[in-house]
Input
Amino acid sequence: MPRLILSMDGLVLKEMPLEKERTTIGRKPHNDIQIDNLAISGEHAAIVTILNDAFLEDLNSTNGTYVNGQPVKKHVLQNNDVVELGKYRLKFLAEQNTGGSEHDEAVSFGAAVAADAPASGAPPVEAAAAAPVASVVGMIQILSGTHAGRTLELSKSLTTLGKPGTQVAVITRRPHGYFITHVEGTVFPVVNGHSLDAQAHRLNDHDIIEIAGVKMEFFSQTVQN
Output
């Protein structure tokens, strides 16, 4: 589980695991991480955590949010990144994924597709000696926009969808299903005509999703492993 180490002037104050999908940071008491200092805005920043990935967003704070000395509005946190809020430092420590076989997938609707399915003819990563075993994998079919008709297999642990700088969401593959979570943008994803909130939403077969003006359908498909 990723975690943050809060310090000031080199003195470690506390260590906090990122247990929630959305962790807020600010001066007001309702924040998950409260920093009672006038240099910190009431609601200063938020971190969205999906599995071992974390996305930092500045919530229009007065004095800004910095990562490794650079001002940021939105930032994908990397292991050992240092988030700076006034005199306070939050060091991000990611839990390392030892599997090494799964990678994230990203699809941008604002430009060319960032990641496609494996090239045809590519050998499978794992050769199965036993008889094939069927499993259920989530799929996304894009219904509108430039990539209408394209089908994307959600075989990775995390798939990013949307238009960077406008609206971005992630779909995570978990043991008990697929979940969509808002990551970036003032407008939240829409599922079956209803706008989502900041929490993860479980997807069901034939759900219609709208992200960055693009509609798509989620469904399950049985594949042979």
Notes: Residues 82 and 91 are 4 Å apart (CA to CA).
